[in-house]
Amino acid sequence: MTMNRRDFLKAAAVTGAGAIVRANASETQAGHAGPTAGRQALTDRMGFGAWINDVRLEPLPFDSWPPVLLDEVAERSIIATMDLQARSGYNMFDLFGLFAAFGWPVDIVSAVDQDRDRRVRRILKAAHERGIKVIYGLGVYSWGFDRIIEHDPAVRGPNVHAMCGSKEESWEWQKRIIDFILQYDFDGYHLEASDLGRCTCNECMRRWPVNAAYYNVITGRSADYIRRQAPDKYIAAITISWADWNKGFTEEDKHGLVELSRKVDSILDQGHHGTYIKASDRKAFIQRLHCRYGTSGGFWVYPPFRCHRLRWFLPYTRKTGTHIKELHADGGRTVLYYQGPVNNPGVEANIAFGGRIMSDVGRSVEDVLAEVLDELYRPRTPEALKKLVGVFQLAEEAYCGNLNYDADGVHLKGLPSHPGPGELHIGFGIGLASGASAVPVYLLEPNLSDKGRTLYAKGLETCLKTAYEIEDQCGDRERAARLKECIFHALDDVAAVSYARQTANLGR
Ligand SMILES: [Zn+2]
From ligand 1's centre to the CA of 143, what distance in Å? Predict the structure, then answer.
């Protein structure tokens, strides 16, 4: 029996309820138009950098996190990411670090020299040409204020990264930064008040003993100010670290968020360690809000910036696709979907998949994955496409299906209420400055144990074998070769870790 690619896509599609076969392979390969948002589309289909160099096509092995370098490679990488986003149905790209990371200079303006100014404006123009809105990742009283706090004792509290919430001088600095950024044509703001903690001075603790109340006040004030200055800008409030990861939001916190929801367009409960609004409560909570609610897709890999771009291969379309469908069913209409370097084959497929499933959550995960891989790799036969789909599905199952964590003390909490991590760190020093270990932590305990590693290695071996088989059956040979190389590197790491661990165990 001979099947063409369209037939295969149709066959794959009938397995999903309400799935629509929309792909005309020749048309989408040639054109740049992404999928049109269907009846069951999310409203805000946002890519999240998160930082400007998280999508970088080349590693920065000697930089520390988060690198704020905005050079030719960074600009080119951001635009390449937007090309894929536009083809995949995204309508927003949220980025941190276009101007500053930990510290704006006290004069504010010298954060942007002529070269940076030109690059930022070119990025904005490129985004708008592609139908993508650029959302500026803005720290609220923290993320960007370290030098100001050092300089101005009036805003200083016990936290060297966070201005004091009780001081009017802090608000003046916050306004000055917003005013500066408003001169650019950003389409919206991602307000993040809490990632680096809060002010814990006596006055702040007396006024806002509850963390969520503190963050709510400074976020709401910033949102009100931006609304007054620029009423048409999109505003998202991000609630990372507003509550205890295990307990989630209290009734009092939820009441505060309902009030905040009058001031913003979206509230994003990203879910680094599981969401603060538990799935069982999500639908009822969303109905109380005056704005949209969203997550970061249930599961994501935080892209490492120091290591070789082909060192990890972690597609997760089933995991995130399942979450996005459930979120939509409960009324969630925003996803802040993590991006990464598009020259990593797993990242590329995840990004392309994310945009398409957000554009129509009624489609089956397998149908969307098949469509994405068909367009990217152009397999010449339906059998080759089927094998390609199998490689991405097996790689996900072999890793995610063998995760066995209890807690790493930082990110992963294996609680029954959220049995997996939201954010997975690859390792290679991510999040740590110089002196960071260079090991692939995603392959170590508590993520994978000996048994899990062995099973993951077996799965990747099968993926590699298949990648060899189909390499010359793909119209895009270069991409197929890159896939093979990427799986090879990932497998090398698993094999090396397994061998080292087994040898160490034997020596005991
Ligand atoms: Zn304070």
Answer: 16
